Amino acid sequence: MAKLQALMPGARRALFMKYHIGGCQSCGFSEDETLAEVCQRNDNLPVDEVIAHLEQSAAHDLDIQISPRELQQKLEEGIAPRLLDIRSREEFEAVKITQSELLTPELQQEAFASWPSDLLVIIIDHVGDRSLDVAAFFIGHGMKTTRALRGGIDAYAREVDTSLPRYEIELSTD
Predict the structure, then answer these.
(1) Which CATH number goes with the domain that contains 124?
(2) Alpha-carbon separation of residue 102 from 57, 62, 86, 124, 151 (angstroms)
(3) Does residue 155 fall inside a structural domain?
(4) Rounded CA gap, 66 and 152, in Å?
(5) Is 131 a domain residue?
(6) How far apart are CA 17 and CA 53, in angstroms?
(7) Has this prediction a pTM greater than 0.70?
(8) Residue 148 CB coordination number (10 Å)
(9) For residue range 83-119, what is the model confidence (pLDDT) as tens digits?
(10) Residues 111 and 82: beta-carbon distance below 8 Å
(11) Do residue 44 and residue 109 come from a single domain?
């Protein structure tokens, strides 16, 4: 499942939405399981059907992403999207796109309560995996032109603004 999620960052969301797989401890899966194993222990779901659903979901995920170059072009054209960064405060303070704002619960409430539903909103994370879920959440709450920055700020730093420092997150095994 780890390889599947690397290829399709929205796979967990897609599996949960249609099949209630992977969203909680009782329906979760381990990273070393195969899709066939997960399907087999979840009512023997047809693997081909699940793969087709994942492919359709991945195509939809591409539709709600914006590439770093596309974002750069919009900024250069004077289009002013709201750039919402969902990383930790420490990551945000260390490196950010100039126009971006750290997404707080208060800012999220403001967005849902008073921003125009057609406002272009770009969700930014580190490498573009979590932003898809947040973009889907915003779209589900009526913000129809919300997009996720493909590859996150890391891709933006590689492809658009090489002056931005890049970093890796190290997870403690303690």
Answers:
(1) 3.40.250.10
(2) 28, 24, 6, 9, 18
(3) yes
(4) 10
(5) yes
(6) 11
(7) yes
(8) 28
(9) 999 999 999 999 999 999 999 999 999 999 999 999 9
(10) yes
(11) no
